Amino acid sequence: PQSNQHHTLTIEEFEPDVFRQLIEYIHTGCVTLQPRTLLGVMNAADYYGLDELRKACAGFVQCCITVDTVCALLASAERYIQYKCTKSLVQKVLEFVDEHGNEVLNLGSFTLLPQHVVRLILAREELRADEFTKFQAALMWSKKYYDSNQDIPLKDIIGNFLEYIQFHKIPTNALVNEVHPLGLVPDSIIMNALAYQADPTSVEPGKLSPPKVRKQGRSMSVQSSLEPYGSNTTLSSSGSDTGFERKQHSGSN
User: Fold this and answer.
1) Pick from 147, 165, 146, 167: which is nearest to 157 by CA?
2) Concatenated DSSP letters for 183-207?
3) Distance CA 140, CA 200 (A)
4) By the number of CB atoms within 10 A of the CB, which of 84, 182, 193, 244 ranks highest?
5) 211: helix, coil or strand?
6) Span 220-245, mean pLDDT?
7) What is the pTM of this model?
């Protein structure tokens, strides 16, 4: 009777869809790669020593990073951040985001990213995006989060991103007619931005942006994956907004 017992092996390292594709590849020698599961399949192939599949995934990366897929790829990176294949993919995706900043920030799928990944993107010096587009992206993400977390004031949510926006570079008419009426940016920042535009020598540089939000605790996981590449952006998160990120991430699944 012992020999007839079934033993269940639980695979915790990879998602069901990813493992299903792995089994399909082992049985047929073929698999259809998709941006949503690409990172999982690539890391699973590396984990189980399927070199041909891993190489195929690496080759597919070059053609699958597009404006339509970058947010899905970055969101999936959170699940596989501890695997080595993730580092190179995240770096390639962020370089693409830098190059196509305005387009990526306008995507509806931008709201699917965890909060700390949004901050990481907005903080990048290499990001090719104008400041008003950065503000609008932060506002879009914050409104989406607020829809399902109305116990947190919208002003507090968007406050996590304001330090990365150079308001004095936003055109005067946009500051006066679109940013200020929202009541989400401190009046002092708006006034200093307008004063700077009238006379750049009248405002100290340190007064042009809100104080930096100091985060204590664990390093941001996507950021820590980039350390070998010498990224000069250092972000960390506190216990207080860890749940904030986790809720947002679970909403993107």
Assistant:
1) 146
2) T-S-HHHHHHHHHHHH-GGGS-GGG
3) 30
4) 193
5) coil
6) 36
7) 0.74
